[in-house]
């Protein structure tokens, strides 16, 4: 079968690989669509700490059951909770396996969904509702990241929110925050295409190349500061902004992964009694709810998908992403083509 | 009357000043004891952003009512909740006046308790229980800081804790954490006298000049990391340590006031889903409970007081504090002498 | 001026009363619209513990400033936070004046808004946005009750919810829960008209005269039970249902006011580790946010208003409400007519 | 081997039974001490919904490893987390297996520790520290119940607390609450011996046969009401008291298991915005921490043990418990005698 394989730093290829053979408890899936995500970009660039070539990428996928398992019938469309936990570390022992100290993921630590077929333990699968489009199902995984971030934040009804970064995670988080009742959502970025999309989705775009974020926040909140900040940019300037724009008693939810320590105004955190809360992937239950949520948000989610490529012609996907003029947000790969 | 007056950067004097005249709603207090605190050191050094010379210092005091007010009889000993809030900002409007955006304090923004007399609005006063020593009453204010930090942290029974910094705030926080049921409390510092005191109080001292903090934490927690970190040092290296030693899902309570932004390993916060929570002073209710708590902890609190000076001979108090060989932790000033 | 006056058990009249004279700090409002609520029904029936005849009713109103005050210009439309707190009880001292032990309300403990004019302390007023209809503004107060209930409940995204009671509070709570991201909202009642409205608003109506609530919940939640129950009926059978239909670890938010103690299955609460949380009115900040929320929900809110009566012809409003065949939910009174 | 066997309603016997044969993953334990608990009383009385005769009782035990397993050496003393969860229900799937909808326990749903030997899955075992007395180890299980209750309650430092019921669970909860920093702990009961013990342990006993609980609470809290109520009595009058004595915004932690629905003043819950929170057994992590906590509280725990019986002479233990004049609280059985 064909698969998109990471073969080493800056290099991916479409390769012919052996059809996976389901182990006991696994079912074989015929892949339908699979999203490409920031983590995949990190793997491609060769900087991911764990991923080792050769590796079939892809952890945001929807597939079809090829042969019936114990719970799913043949032909059933499914999405997979892609986390593999060790079961013995402190988080695993205390009901939080999603922050397992040895957490591994399908598509990062073992073969993923950017292929024609994938074999997955059946207990990691969730049924896709009949009336859900495959394109929406492919967004269940990244939306689960946003769902957890919003829940970690404790966002209230009619709260005022700032999302730093209008990449896929930032935009999905802004959408999830609105779904949770946020009144006013500012979205900051430096990329004009992403800001335009943020504006089209109904958010207040803040173009950091020309606008002053603090000023915009002051105006939008009558000088109070925002109730919740979602840091989804992962760059130093965002870490500097996040404490400045939060209101006293406010919350900063940190979804982004900063590659190196960066300066944070700890004085703001103490003086304003801010809560800075990390958010990592999602629990099984949140993944399950992300399916329901995705269906409710389908119309908006559609607009975040900027391109679909056939698997056979996807070897240049990381070049597209790297090219700002392409103005991509979320790219899906059609594994059947 | 005599008072210890801040007269400009690096300079304090004992001065003769006018007896304060109570305004309506105020009562005149004859000062008994008043503690000197890190904030006073900051004012003395000339780096405090608000304090303006000439200023009578002191916000950790116990006094005696000179003339009966509406609620307190003559001779009643009292401690004062020293916070002055604006009443109109967002925190004030939403039940959190202790993080008022224009917060002011007795002894920082207006005349304080390092004097023979002080006039205070009666509704800021709390009665000192009859069986409480004045020395313990003088610690109610800094203990309230520790009480809030411990409550903000959500510390559980038999939790494992690290306190960074064995200054007055660090030691009181360690004591309050133990009072709240912490099982194992590591206290790190670089000052041998403070570490010795930490050890004598029953904590596990970590001497950063020779011990490896991460290693000590791993040993003390079977490799899990501590449940709660209290950052009470206020220096860059502590900000670096705090994320490293917390267990996944753990909490960092930030009491210290970092003068400048400093590097923080945000990746740890996201990956381990840490909660970094600022803690600032205390609410009125926490101040009230600090009185009860102080009495329950009196024996240990006594040991944190390393020296008592007469007010008349207190002009060199900041020199003492600055001299590491003096090995001071908490110094009290006897305002009656 | 004309006013709807409660004159004793089961008796209200349109009376001519003196125009109120603003005290210092108050502004005179020309009333526009005022809602009638369950509490008013209780007062009318003579069972309210505090309300004393003669009393001008009404605490859900929008008015227009007659003469400029310190903050509001003449002609400005406003809604009023109607809570009066004592300032000295434990809740008042600890930042929760909305549960003041001596809580009083405009329209219950002193003259209210079912009149041509009302004088209100200016600091209780909030501006109505220019583009907001008076009818929506009149719903800000009851919506604030629903907003607080939803926030107290900690509702998550795509959570499954049951609302017991399809009265004004139940329907507004169901709407607020959906606004906060609830996926599936069951609404139970015994009144066909109210159930029909619940269905028309997009909820799953459960007609307790024929449907089995537990069964419907099991079906709607794959046997898990609902994540959150809102008890908005205030009758014994609802208190019995609430613990039965919640999932283990779920939350029951109790908004309704049960006149007498009633049997509760405490075994369910312990065994399923349920959280039963009382919710009372709203904080000032929640009232402020309710204005923003009302605007976002305007279309749905419109449908909850089933009738508008002129003040001059409103003396029979409690007869209408008592007549099930009238099928009313929320009745507004036009104070200008 | 000898074992205490429940043979039917109101009947237990010392029987000779077959030595258990460890299945794969299990280790054989030589029982040392085993406590008798309220649940055992329920089983004995024949009212327990699940327990089926013949059954070896006992789930509060300390044993010695007979033959080394994978993690524990021969001779190692251990206590066992006695909960068996299904792994597939909603609570199990969402990290809360301790409220599994099909929860089963060693000693209730399968043979327990009131015997000379017991075979237990090794992964349910925790090491007993070398310096811990067997008598204290035997209290780890009921203390874990108290630990969870205290943590569920969110008790603050110097909080004022009432514990309803001075049985084993009530007294352990009062002790755990004090260990968590409670300032003032009232303990109510109707049994003079238990009240005397509560007083001797340093709590304020409230003898409901003659004292008025509300009055005592008012006095002890300056009229505020208690911050936290622990309902550990499980009788109707306690359910009536619990809402009355809690302060506005206070918490009621419900540990007791009420056999039937009983009247609760729901109006108090709504009006005072109380949180009524169920607490059931404990998580694995809380059980682990209970070992540390037991050691810190050893001196007080000793006093709760009122009697130790040899296993061979324990057939009348339920008669002793039923006889108020015996004034027992916690009875241990010496399984080696
Ligand atoms: N916690 C988790 O479980 C989890 C899961 C998935 C992803 N993540 C992390 O979440 C973050 C966002 O992911 P993503 O896929 O959306 O990444 P992304 O596509 O790189 O999006 C980040 C966006 O932020 C913009 N940006 C740059 N500087 C900024 C600034 N100062 N303020 C605001 N925005 C700025 C970037 O613009 P340019 O592209 O023009 O620089 C980019 O559009 C990443 O750090 C990723 O590793 C975390
Ligand atoms: N949030 C609030 O409301 C509030 C209230 C009061 C105080 N504070 C803040 O709390 C902090 C502590 O106050 P304090 O009065 O206890 O101050 P302090 O006396 O300066 O204590 C800090 C201690 O930390 C030690 N230290 C230095 N480097 C360290 C490191 N890498 N790790 C651990 N410890 C280290 C210091 O040793 P050396 O002295 O030898 O350098 C000193 O003993 C200050 O930042 C203060 O501003 C906050
Ligand atoms: N906490 C607060 O601050 C606050 C503020 C406002 C109101 N409230 C309370 O909230 C509650 C609801 O107010 P409301 O104005 O919406 O009252 P409402 O109009 O009386 O609504 C209650 C609804 O519940 C229905 N009902 C009767 N039995 C039921 C059952 N077994 N299960 C489900 N529904 C049942 C009633 O039907 P029928 O009419 O046919 O009997 C009615 O439609 C009241 O108790 C009120 O006092 C509380
Ligand atoms: N949630 C859980 O996981 C869990 C675990 C273990 C136990 N439990 C439950 O916790 C409860 C307490 O257990 P236990 O072993 O301590 O039971 P217990 O020995 O029966 O203790 C209850 C005590 O309450 C006294 N009491 C009676 N009426 C009272 C009243 N109105 N107010 C205050 N106290 C009153 C009883 O006195 P008399 O004996 O004189 O009547 C008795 O001393 C039980 O309901 C048990 O089922 C729950
Ligand atoms: Zn793990
Ligand atoms: Zn303020
Ligand atoms: Zn009050
Ligand atoms: Zn289960």
Short description:
Chain A is α/β, with parallel strands linked by helices. Helices cover 30% and strands 28% of the residues of chain A.
Written overview of the protein:
Four copies of one chain form a homotetramer. Chain A has 337 residues and is α/β, with parallel strands linked by helices. Helices cover 30% and strands 28% of the residues of chain A. The first copy, chain A, has twelve helices and 19 strands. The first copy, chain A, has helices at 38-45, 90-93, 134-137, 140-153, 168-179, 192-200, 213-220, 236-245, 266-271, 284-296, 298-304, 317-322, and strands spanning 2-8, 11-16, 26-35, 55-56, 60-65, 77-80, 83-84, 104-105, 117-121, 125-127, 160-164, 184-189, 204-207, 226-231, 246-254, 262-264, 275-278, 305-310, 330-334. In chain A, the strands form four sheets. In chain A, strands 3, 5, 6, 9, 10, 18 and 19 form a seven-stranded mixed β-sheet that branches. In chain A, strands 13-12-11-14-15-17 form a six-stranded parallel β-sheet, with helices on both faces. The first copy, chain A, has a three-stranded antiparallel β-sheet with strand order 2-1-4. In chain A, helix 4 packs across helix 5 (168-179) and helix 4 packs across helix 10. The longest helix of chain A has 14 residues, at 140-153. The termini of chain A are close together. The mean pLDDT of chain A is 97. Chains in contact: A-B, A-C, A-D, B-C, B-D, C-D. Chains A and B meet through strand 15, strand 16, helix 9 and strand 17 of A and strand 15, strand 16, helix 9 and strand 17 of B. The structure holds NADP nicotinamide-adenine-dinucleotide phosphate (4 copies) and zinc ion (ZN) (4 copies). One zinc ion (ZN) is lined by residues 85-87, 89, 91-92, 97, 100-102 of chain D. Residues 85-87, 89, 91-92, 97, 100-102 of chain B line the site of one zinc ion.
């Amino acid at each position: 079968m064909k698969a998109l394989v990471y073969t080493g730093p800056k290099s991916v290829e479409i390769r012919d690989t052996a059809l996976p053979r389901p182990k006991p408890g696994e079912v074989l899936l015929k892949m339908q669509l699979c999203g490409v995500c920031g983590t995949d970009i990190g793997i491609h660039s060769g900087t991911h700490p764990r991923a080792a070539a050769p590796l079939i990428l892809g952890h945001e996928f929807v597939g079809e059951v090829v042969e019936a398992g114990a719970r799913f019938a043949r032909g059933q469309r499914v999405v997979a909770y892609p986390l593999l936990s060790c079961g013995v570390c402190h988080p695993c022992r205390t009901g939080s396996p999603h922050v397992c100290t040895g957490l591994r993921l399908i598509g990062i630590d073992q073969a993923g969904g950017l292929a024609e077929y994938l074999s997955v333990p059946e207990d990691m699968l969730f049924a896709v509702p009949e009336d859900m489009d495959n394109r929406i199902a492919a967004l269940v995984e990244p939306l689960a990241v946003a769902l957890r971030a919003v829940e970690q934040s404790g966002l209230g009804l009619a709260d005022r929110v700032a999302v730093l970064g209008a990449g896929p995670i930032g935009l999905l988080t802004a959408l999830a925050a609105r779904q949770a009742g946020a009144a006013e959502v500012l979205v900051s970025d430096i990329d004009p295409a992403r800001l335009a999309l943020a504006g089209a989705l109904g958010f207040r775009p803040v173009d950091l190349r020309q606008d002053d974020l603090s000023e915009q926040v002051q105006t939008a909140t009558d000088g109070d500061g925002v109730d919740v900040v979602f840091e989804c940019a992962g760059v130093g300037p965002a870490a500097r902004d996040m404490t400045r724009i939060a209101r006293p008693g406010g919350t900063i939810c940190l979804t982004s992964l900063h590659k190196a320590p960066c300066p944070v105004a700890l004085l703001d955190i103490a003086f304003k009694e801010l809560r800075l809360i990390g958010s990592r992937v999602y629990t099984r239950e949140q993944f399950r709810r992300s399916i329901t949520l995705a269906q409710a948000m389908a119309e908006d989610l559609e607009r975040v998908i900027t391109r679909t490529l056939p698997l056979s012609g996807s070897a240049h996907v990381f070049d597209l992403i790297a090219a700002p003029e392409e103005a991509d947000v979320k790219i899906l790969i059609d594994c059947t083509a």
